[in-house]
Write a structure and sequence with these properties.
two-stranded antiparallel ribbon, mainly alpha
């Protein structure tokens, strides 16, 4: 079930619409984003199995590579927070990535008490191999877009990504939904989390 469908069958009639969000502009786009996210996650699962990587390994490696690209240090604690992992689980993931040659540990020059993580050339090469088919297919679609359409995506996608991050923080804090179902009705089914397949 997709997010916020919130419908159940009623005897002798169409299912009632109990969605608190259905009338909002762009509500249908939410489903399109969920579908894209789900398919991207399925693709990642397919290729990571081919390369012998565990699910969390790919996410941890992505975090390391993103931090390296941005020139900021990334440590085991950062990985644990971003992936919501225990300390021992994070250590296991990092050990696997080091053993497979995807990550190296090094003393942080800004704080020699800290150990930073860095992706290796092997990791970048494997990443290019893993995601070349998806990159080529998506770029083919973007090539068919106008400059204005690409500009909108470039501006809005980071905003939507931040919105999902904020939602994740709210969910982690147990924040109640901003809207509630009508009295006497069941709350809407939240549906799948985007990107979980």
């Amino acid at each position: 079930m997709q997010a916020d469908e919130g419908t159940t069958s009623t005897p002798g009639g169409a299912p009632p619409d109990r969605s608190a969000h259905r009338g909002h502009r762009g509500f249908d786009v939410l489903f399109l984003l969920q579908l894209f996210s789900t398919e991207a996650e399925r693709y990642a699962d397919q290729v990571r199995r081919h390369y012998g990587l565990a699910h969390k390994d790919v996410h941890a490696l992505n975090e390391v590579m993103q931090a390296n690209r941005e020139g900021r240090p990334v440590r085991a604690g950062d990985i644990a927070r971003r992936l919501v992992l225990s300390g021992s689980a994070t250590t296991t993931v990092i050990k696997r990535l080091v053993a497979s040659g995807h990550v190296v540990r090094s003393v942080d020059p800004r704080d020699r008490r800290e150990v930073s993580l860095h992706a290796t050339e092997h990791a970048y090469r494997a990443g290019r191999e893993m995601f070349t088919p998806m990159t080529e297919e998506v770029l083919a679609v973007l090539e068919d877009c106008s400059d204005e359409e690409v500009a909108v995506l470039r501006r809005r996608m980071p905003q939507l990504t931040d919105a999902v991050r904020r939602a994740g923080r709210r969910a982690a804090e147990g924040d109640a939904p901003r809207t509630t179902a009508a009295a006497g009705t069941a709350p809407p089914d939240p549906g799948p989390v985007p990107g979980t397949g």
